[in-house]
Amino acid sequence: MTSYPEEPWHLAGQMYLSLWFVPRRELPRVVDGVRPVVIGGRGAVGAAWVVYENDSVLHYNELLRAVLVRDGLRPRVSITDIWVDSEASMAGGRELWGIPKEMADFAIDRSAGVRAGAATGKEVLATAAFEPGRRIPGRWPLTYRVTQTRDGELKTSSVRSRSTVRMARARWVAQEGSPLGELSRSRPLLSLALNDFTIRFGDVLEQAARR
Questions:
Q1: Alpha-carbon torsion (81, 17, 70, 158), positive or negative
Q2: What pLDDT is stored for residue 112 in this prediction?
Q3: Cβ-count burial of 23 within 10 angstroms (0-12 exposed, 13-18 middle, 19+ buried)?
Q4: pTM for the whole thing?
């Protein structure tokens, strides 16, 4: 059995995020018990490359796609697709929070912005190039909740983060056969580089309850 840190996980690093508003019919399937937030027939989809480094409890790379959903009237984020290159992260994500992490190989070049790619075996999941632009002054806090399914029930976890923010230009490429093929069909509405972020993922009460 792969060991992993207890929650909450304290993580730090760099995130490169893009957002799309796509027609309802093109939204990824979300977990049972929540519904996508749809306005004017479109829903919000985000995709991100993440490098967890610095003072993180685990160091690894990540590619994910998520959808803005609602649990009743409460807004949530639901992760529909996610890959990492750490077995400890995969095991912890699945067992603690019901996040459907899979393994992949990553190639990331940060010499000029970021160029990243992820593949499983011979299948390329996606590649992306980010060119960071203007920095927004300050360090920006963000608090939200992630809802997944764990052991057949909804599991909602808190996330608190803080980062510097830069506007960015991004180009995503995913082959038609990739689970993320839709990402390259249109340009993102917004892309950001979230530099030197810190995140607390998970709830302290969960940890206490298991002891």
A1: positive
A2: 66
A3: exposed
A4: 0.92
Q: Per the structure, how many domains does the chain have?
A: 1
Intervals of the chain under pLDDT 70:
112-113, 205-211
What is the CATH number for 24? 2.40.400.10
Task: Provide the pLDDT for residue 94.
Answer: 97
**Residue 104 structural domain:** 9-210
The answer to whether residue 42 is domain-embedded is yes
CA gap 207, 211 in Å, rounded: 7
Rg (Cα) of the chain, in Å, rounded? 16
Residue 1 lies in a domain: no
Convert the pLDDT of each residue in 75-117 to its tens digit.
999 999 999 999 999 999 999 999 999 999 999 888 766 788 8
- Beta-strand ranges (E) seen in the chain are 9-23, 35-36, 38-39, 42-52, 60-71, 74-84, 101-103, 105-109, 114-120, 123-150, 153-173, 190-201
Q: Which of 161, 148, 187 is nearest to 67 (CA)?
A: 148
